[in-house]
Amino acid sequence: MARRSGRARKVGDQVQRELSEILARELRDPRVGMVTLTGVDMSPDCTHAVIHFTCLDEAHAAAATEGLARASGFLRTQLARRIKIYSAPTLRFVYDESVARGDRISRLIDSVRSKD
Fold it and tell me: Top-level CATH class of 6-115?
């Protein structure tokens, strides 16, 4: 993973906080539902953001990705109103499989333990 500057990290953290609140309170797209933002990767110049998210049901990930992509313009506008930055970053949403993968590994370990 590339080393991020302090500014990009701070802006990414602020973007994550604000987007989480916007998603919870203002976005009305039923495809998105209950998503959790797990991280934000900002470009060094803070013009692009890759937002990683997860949802309760892995089967819901494709619909949530589509809904978030469709709402990205609205989310960017709302974000621009909330944060003090020269230009609001373009947003790209990516499903974070690490949580589901970790859960699967944990269940496999538990099943091996129960057999012993």
Answer: alpha beta
95 or 2: which leads in pLDDT: 95
Q: How far, in Å, are 16, 80, 82, 98, 101 from residue 90 at the CA level? A: 13, 11, 15, 24, 28
Q: Is the dihedral of CA 101, 1, 61, 53 positive or negative?
A: positive
**Structural domain boundaries in the chain:** 6-115
Please return the burial class of 50, using the count of CB atoms within 10 Å of its CB with bins 0-12, 13-18 and 19+. middle
pLDDT tens digits for 33-71?
Answer: 889 999 999 999 989 999 999 988 888 899 999 999 999
